[in-house]
Amino acid sequence: SQQGEEDPQALSIQEGENATMNCSYKTSINNLQWYRQNSGRGLVHLILIRSNEREKHSGRLRVTLDTSKKSSSLLITASRAADTASYFCATASIQGAQKLVFGQGTRLTINP
Amino acid sequence: GAGVSQSPSNKVTEKGKDVELRCDPISGHTALYWYRQRLGQGLEFLIYFQGNSAPDKSGLPSDRFSAERTGESVSTLTIQRTQQEDSAVYLCASSLDLAGGASTGYTFGSGTRLTVV
Asked: Which residues in chain B touch residue A30, judged by CB atoms under 8 angstroms apart?
């Protein structure tokens, strides 16, 4: 079964608005990562947050991690048309930490 | 190289034929991973390599699938007697370290889109 489950499955907003995507997982983790995928090909690493961290920022991205609820959120502020993509969370569990397990993704559409 | 390179980028094959997919990771990256992604779906783990060894092959769907890595560099994923359900994008990634690429995450290639007709 998938370790990470993103919510919502699809999100459509206007350019300039903020986009929030959520991820829930099941087991104890070493770290959680977010990736972006354009056009169904290679994924691009966005940000990594370790299990002992609660919040991390990178440019317009903000990631939070709540290990007690086994959940994470990705916030993209001041969205742009170029942010249109699929976003995936991925977890490295403490057991079997050598590989990332990906969720099903959130399809984000930014309307001009 | 500067990034992870996969070839071919697209492959159309007839049902029952064998195919080989190639991945050139970033030089010096210890770990190499293969994933499969069906249309509109998430990534399905297939196998990972630490050096030339494959400690976890648990995701390989059947014995028609095999992979190897040589020289702690290039990896080849082989699918024998392809079936239509094998149609997907096959993605390769590498990372500097294990623990899910705990320091810098994974770097992905652009994938091989396999279509079995």
From this structure: 99-100, 102
